[in-house]
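for ur thesis appendix - Prolyl oligopeptidase. copy paste whatever u need, i formatted it the way the template wanted (i think)
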Amino acid sequence: MALKTLATITSICLLSACNPSKTTKQSQAEDKAVMTTRSTEAPLWLEEVEGEQALTKVNAWNKRTLDKLTTDPRFTQYQQAALDIVNATDKIAYGSYRGDKVYNFWQDETQVRGLLRRTTLSEYAKTQPAWENLLDIDELAKTEGKNWVYKGSECLQSNYDRCMLSLSNGGKDAIEMREWDHQTKSFVKDGFTIPESRTGISWNNQNSINVATNWGDNSLTDSGYPYIVKSLQRGQALSEALTLYSGVKSDVGVFPFSLKYQDKQLSMLVRAITFYESEYFWLPENAAAPIRLAIPNTANVNGIFKGQLVLSLKQDWQPEGSDITYKSGSLVSFDMQKWLENQKITGLQLVYQPAERATLDGVSITANKVVISLLENVVNNIYVYDFVDGHWQHNKLALPDNGTMSVSSANQDSDIVFINQESFVSPDTLYQVDVSSADISAIKSIPARFDASNLVVEQFFASSSDGEKIPYFVIHKQDIQYDGSNPTLQYAYGGFEVSMKPSYSGILGKNWLEQGGVYVLANIRGGGEYGPAWHQAGLKTKRQIIFDDMIAVAEDIIAKKITSPQHLGTMGGSNGGLLMGVMYTQRPDLWNAVVCQVPLLDMLRFHKLLAGASWVGEYGSPDIAEERAFLEKISPLHNIDPNGNYPSILFVTSTKDDRVHPGHARKMAYMLDQYGHDFEYYENIDGGHSASANLKETAKRTALEYTFLSQKLMSKTN
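the 3d part is after this line
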């Protein structure tokens, strides 16, 4: 379903083209008008993504860091271990079941950029399926002289052979879209083509699509996303497309999608006003204007099931004319046909209401069931719901109780779903489930990538500054000594309602746990572990509580003598990179090493860089006095003490990251350089927001990170 376009902009785990709308000189002039100029500021030429002066500085930092880390024998060991894991031929080939085929995108040592392929459902269940190769991205990149990274496809539901493929040059969020035919295994001659942009499309039929893209003439929002949706017919030039809807430049973005209803597709669009407030519209055929769906701006549309439009709520809602209040975090539904006829919401029903420490973790609609993943005290369970005789009923799916479960594939044409199960110490197992018959079979699994025989997983709760109990997991060898000497890595994210769940990482296991390291996953506020309220507790000027949670966990594991500041490191990326910057500046005494990945660090200019304007709903706006005052207090770039005693820090970013600007890491490194503080820096020239465009680059990046952590937290003899 095309709601994935909105999901792209609503997860900074955020991960449009790079669209600086102003020159450096213009930006400087504006900044002087709205803020007091500090005596020491990082130069804005560091924001010139591929500027010669900036890249000269980056290359010098890269060389210094690579010389220091790659000459450590552990780097070669960690890189080879990571390569063996990411390139393993016995990993699970995760598939999406569409039509009567299972589609898979495969990468390994020889298919570096990847291979799009498919097989039948019965063949997929075999240990060695016979695959039909569709598109070789490596060959395409070689032929066209581009560093193509495959970013998925949007297929016509009535004919899954016809798709719009998304290709990114170097891993950017900005994509080029081309029409592809799986049947002929070729791009469609004179087919639909959308140039590089942060594009969203939905199919009306085989000869018509709705498109949101860069139409030129200042048609992108301040966040760099499109806000104009047009209808494009086969054979038309983009300039001939008919405008269906136009938002405003201050929106985050506007995107088309479709809802399957009975035997047809309803054309819809979503206008993201802010990161957490959206309006949904129906686009009736031949109508003069779109019709707005009158639901709360914070609600999410999940789809239509047996005539019921299913919504997830992020705030309490008492519909007009009703005396019932539906609680935040609930799943509700109403009769879609009646709404289509008169645009009135009637007969609202409760599908699910969460308990105190539970939350919705995923909603999937199949042909005859609704599959709901719940997170209950940070443990997953899967439930199957049905709408029978005007009422919702459900039962729990009988899967083994073992860690994290997630629906990896589901669609509305079938009751076959794929469910993945994993834990910190148990490798992934993929189940094929018929949710109508409850027939469950384990069809794929991966062998252990590291020795977990002596590992223990424990869950503890730390008391934060306001008394809230913050859950965290600790994974360690059974025979560790509680003397504060254990090298420990604490990881967290803390934002955008993204839940951090137990997962199996071969690289973490091989290059950290197996080496004697302890791993801590902190479920701090800002995430979605306990529902919308857990996230909303740290929005905007309330964000310090998120940082307090992280500090509380660190202090708790130190108090338990699991580790000590000399042996404690921390890691986080994107929004978690901001968290790392704050931990570095607010509590440098807690850590001896910080790994700061693709970070936000300049919180007074984040809204002017790439997609940054879309995140003011999370962080607040530097253009609002009260919010700016708070942001200035937490902004890592603006809170470096020239005479401070700081831990070692490694910045990891990417030149091609067109979501979180590499200028954040560059400017922080520059200021540390000016003050003589110790830091390491690695900027991958490709890679996008993941900082890795392919598996080989992933292996190198992680090897650098674990080498750095080992140098700082482990003895040389380990």
